[in-house]
Amino acid sequence: MQLVNIISNNEGLASLANLVGRVGLSVIFILAGMNKTQYFEDNAQYLASGGLPEFLLPLVIAFELVGGLFILAGALTQITALAFAGFCVISALVFHNNLADQMQFFMFFKNIAMAGGFLALASAGAGRFSVDHKLAQQ
């Protein structure tokens, strides 16, 4: 059954796939945090449109930027990935819950898919190319 475990049986390939996956999961949040900083007022209004207080925006920006960098570097990966999984589900429920609108339907399930990716990352850990791996070796 080599075909079933084609990646997990090869430590180098598994670590590389983990790194590429972390890059993919982190970049959207790093860019979103930068966007929220650049267009702060518009994003504060969007947050308020979801029924959340605007004062949460700096916390959201910090979470997206710092958490995104943690995922990218593979630092505190399991805890950060769990936090992002929750963040994605909450964002889907609060901001993309109009499933009759095709765009919101896709945005909702994009968030759910990202939550699944973060849960898989939390389960697998950061892999060899990570800060977590370096800290575990000490």
Automatic annotation (TrEMBL):
Transmembrane segments: 12-34, 55-73, 79-100, 112-131
Claim: Ribosomal protein is one of the keywords in the record: no
GO CC field: plasma membrane
Record keywords, A-Z: Cell membrane, Membrane, Transmembrane, Transmembrane helix
Protein's cellular compartments: Cell membrane
Membrane topology reported for the UniProt record: Multi-pass membrane protein
InterPro entries per the UniProt record, alphabetical: DoxX (IPR032808), DoxX-like_oxidoreductase (IPR051907)
Family designation: Belongs to the DoxX family.
Record PANTHER family: INNER MEMBRANE PROTEIN YPHA-RELATED (PTHR33452:SF1), OXIDOREDUCTASE CATD-RELATED (PTHR33452)
Protein name as catalogued: DoxX family protein
